[in-house]
Amino acid sequence: MTNDKQQQEEELLILKSILGETITDLSNENDQFEIDIEFQLSRPFHLRLIDNSNELSTVIQHLPPLILTIHFHDQYPSSIHSPTFVLSSCYLSRTYLENMCRKLDEIWEQNLSQPIIFQWIECLKEEFSSVNELCLTNLETNNENDDPRAMSSYEPDQVTRIYQQLIEYNQEIENEKFLHEYHECPICMSNDISGRDMIRLHKCHHTFCRACLHDYAQMHINTGSVEWLLCPDTQCQLALLPSEIKIIINNNELYDKYERLLLQKTLEQMLDIVWCPRCQQAVLTGNESDNLALCDQCRFAFCKKCKKTYHSQTLCAMEQELIELKEKRRKALLKWRGLKLTEDDEKNLLREFLAVARIENSTRLCPNSMCQVPIEKNEGCDHMFCVRCRTNFNWSEAKDQTTEAKALFEQYGNDLDKLN
């Protein structure tokens, strides 16, 4: 065995002990091998995309490895010629790789006839140790003196695809790192939970343990409040993705219930949707001036207001009853004001009016003309939110249902002792 060959084998053996699985033999002669140069970046940096139609930017901290392929010739390291090498990358431009090749040549010239591979690796890593930005553009670059050692699959017309691939790679590494670390759950306050027992939400990246998220999701599904399945962080409140909820609950039957409730809640927010009273299917209503609703499932024609059999232009029984109640109330008010009542009768009648007034005084109609659902306010600021149509409004500007009842309530308030 020649001295050069022995030095090659010793250098390769040392490299394998340092680099581990990132070095791969390409021949049985121990003279060709491939090294995945992984960059250990100390901090996140900006990844930018600039092309004719896009200008995007994001922050990442992990990049795919740079591939360094080496071939030892027979006279290495004693010869003045360096080992043959190729630099390969899917996201670095050919121009950048050519510059890196020249730097490796300079290092060899400064260390002639010495083992050089480890110094090359350190040089390539050092180039990325303090990177602040990586910019992907679709600008064509023409270089008449192409260096064949620079192998790049970077194509200017594919920068959008490369941009997405780098983001996906960074996410994969972050997820893998997350799984092998221990974390604290902000709900149960346990601080020694393995990453495999934690879930990191996709939209906001907040993390919680599986057990807490399972109980949280199960509670909302069982109570029917699936529209409030939001990030539990009080400063976040972004909605959980259906794919995340499926992983969290890990129960097909419960997830099917979630999907049914979510569809129901979504349809309820559509103001031209009513529910068939016979088969409970969603029915799309038509003309606003017509109360007709026809179920496509069971062919039942019904009134979209009272949910009874369709009754054309006649008043709903519910509306008729309301008119009669209002008329009775009007007559009772006239009787109370114009007739001589005993003191006890007067107090009893006033109690009845006050009970109704108390309810009406604490409610306002949703200002959305297609909704008009009564909303009660018991505390808090003036800002209100309709859970049916998701309209935001101010309580003080919403419509009073009965100003007469309001006046009566304001006169007596909650103090029924005034009637004793």
Task: Give a written overview of the molecule.
This protein is α+β, with helices and mostly antiparallel strands. It folds into three domains: 151 residues, Ubiquitin Conjugating Enzyme, CATH 3.10.110; 87 residues, Zinc/RING finger domain, C3HC4 (zinc finger) (Herpes Virus-1), CATH 3.30.40.10; 79 residues, no CATH class. It is built from ten helices and 20 strands. The strands form eight sheets. A five-stranded mixed beta sheet has the order 1-2-5-6-8, covered by helices on one side. A three-stranded mixed beta sheet has the order 4-3-7, covered by helices on one side. Strands 9-10 form a two-stranded antiparallel ribbon. Helix 9 crosses helix 10. The longest helix is centred in the last third of the chain and has 22 residues. It starts with a helix and ends in an 8-residue tail after the last helix. The C terminus is likely disordered. This is RBR-type E3 ubiquitin transferase. It is an enzyme of class 2 (transferase). Its EC number is 2.3.2.31. It catalyses: [E2 ubiquitin-conjugating enzyme]-S-ubiquitinyl-L-cysteine + [acceptor protein]-L-lysine = [E2 ubiquitin-conjugating enzyme]-L-cysteine + [acceptor protein]-N(6)-ubiquitinyl-L-lysine. One of its GO terms (molecular function) is zinc ion binding.
